[in-house]
Amino acid sequence: MLEFLRLSVKNLRKRKLRSWLTMIGIIIGIAAVVSLISLGDGLRTAITGQFGSLSTDKLTVQNSGTGFGPPGSTSVRKLTSHDIDVIEKVQGVDVAIGRLIRIAKVEYKKDVGYFYITNLPEDEKEQEIVYEAGLFKMDIGKLLKNEKGKVLIGSQVAKSFEKDINAGDNIIIQGESFEVIGVLKTSSTFTINSAIIMLNDGMRNLLDIGDEIDLIIVQLQKNANAEEVAERIENKLRKDRDEKPGEEDFSVQTPLQAISSVNTILDIINLIVSGIAAISLVIGGIGIANTMYTSVLERKKEIGTMKAVGAKNSDILLIFVVESGLLGLLGGIIGALLGLGMAFLASSIANVVFGGNIISVSVNYALLSGAVGFSFAIGILSGFFPARQASGMKPVEALRG
Questions:
Q1: Which of 75, 137, 234, 297 is such that its CA lies 20 to 30 A from the CA of 3?
Q2: Of 31, 28, 8, nearest to 368 (Cα)?
Q3: Where are the domains of the chain?
Q4: Angle formed by the axes of helices 365-391 and 313-354, to 10°?
Q5: Which helix (H) or strand (E) element contains residue 222?
Q6: Kind of pairing, strands 111-120 and 150-153?
Q7: Alpha-carbon distance 101 to 288, whole Å?
Q8: Strand ranges (DSSP E) for 221-321?
């Protein structure tokens, strides 16, 4: 077997360019699978972490059609303070808090940027719920309470200008000056890192929003069932708006529904990329088979010579199978390493862009060995039929070429 291996390595080294071109399909397929799955768990954790503000005792009511985009986008009918009054009368609801999320122009020392602006209720109990839901932790300064003309900023906002913003500095939002009362610590929720928080009335006046609300956070009473309360809210709002089931221009979402939606999207992405990877592996297998068929034709005299000096059919078969298996094995190893490198690179870029350790990559050795083993199997299967053809040649015909 060692001699067969040495002979196969020698033959592959003779045809370096062809060997590399043959392995491309395998490399791409394995790299895609490894990078996707290595990033998968970290990506799933990162995205579901964006719903960390929705604890099990909170629901979200928002305008239909907003999806994962900024709230306040197109909808038939916007949420208003009237909807808050309706929701607060529903059994199981403790308090409903209207939230605003908009994008505004921000200036700091002649530097300009655009960031999310979100509101903070003036009511102290509602402020505590918002801070608790957002898991806000201070880095510099203090939390915003009822100080007019002051704002709280995320870590990414503080670092987005030529000079870092610190507590006590003034920034200009939509032409008005505000004092930064504090800077938040980097959070796993990157929307918070890129947000500026100001008092509700100040934000409404600054952006001329009126009575419109982008989404409503519903704090449930102790021991209330989230699914049941969500159904009651839907029925109450539907009746108040005179809408039929399925035609609502609002949505009520529980934390489990939000996470389930994200997981479904990630599963679809995984399926699509796995399909692309499978196509690449098939192409890689066809490439190996084609190379091995060509190799058989080129090496007829060599096969004839080996048979003339006593080589068995099984020996010839093994030589070509080992050679094709090596192509698959090398392609798998290179693809696995490349895929792992791509996963770490994507993770690093995401963490730099969004700040903090948003997406992490875990090295799954079972995945790496499985991917390499699978590509080795693809190589062997792809080379089996050309190898069988080579082993079936008659010595005299092979020597004639």
A1: 297
A2: 31
A3: 2-49+260-400, 64-253
A4: 150
A5: none
A6: unpaired
A7: 55
A8: 250-253
CB hemisphere CA count around 81 (13 angstroms): 6
Which residue, among 106, 83, 79, has the nearest Cα to 96 in the 3D structure? 83
Paired tokens of 306 = 């080996």
* 8 A C-beta contact, residue 200 and residue 120: yes
d(CA 158, CA 61) in angstroms, rounded, equals 30
- Range 261-288 burial, b when 16+ CB lie within 10 A, else e: ebeeeeeeebeebeeebeebbeebbebb
Of 78, 125, 74, 120, residue with least CA distance to 100: 120
Q: What is the pLDDT along the chain (401 residues), one digit of tens a residue?
A: 677 677 667 766 777 777 777 788 788 888 888 887 777 766 666 665 555 545 668 888 988 755 444 444 444 578 999 999 999 999 999 999 999 999 999 999 889 999 999 999 999 888 988 887 766 788 899 999 989 999 999 998 999 998 999 999 999 999 999 999 999 988 766 678 889 999 999 999 999 998 889 999 999 998 888 889 999 999 999 999 888 887 788 888 876 666 666 677 777 777 776 777 777 777 777 877 777 777 766 666 777 777 777 778 787 778 778 888 888 888 889 989 998 998 888 888 877 776 666 677 777 788 788 888 888 888 888 778 777 777 777 766 656 65
pTM above 0.90, yes or no: no
Is-contact 171 151, C-beta < 8 A? yes
CB-side exposure of 128: number of CA atoms within 13 Å? 3
